[in-house]
Amino acid sequence: MTESINGTKMAVSAMDTISHVAAESAASTQSVLAATEEQVASMQEISAFSSSLTKLAGEMKSLTHTFKI
Fold first, then answer.
1. What is this structure's pTM?
2. Which end of the chain lies in a sparser environment, N or C, as judged by fewer CB atoms within 10 Å?
3. What domain of life does the native source organism fall in (predicted)?
């Protein structure tokens, strides 16, 4: 009987440990997700700025053709 109780206590302890590790893993996953979302937003901003610069460069190129060198 004592062995059964000890086995049950060990099983409960192991399940508590697994639950704690799973909760920590979930929190870490959320942190990684938030960082990834920030990186995606930054990359979208960079892409928009790059497109804008490309457009401006084209306009400048067109305007410089009016000058004689």
1. 0.62
2. C
3. Bacteria
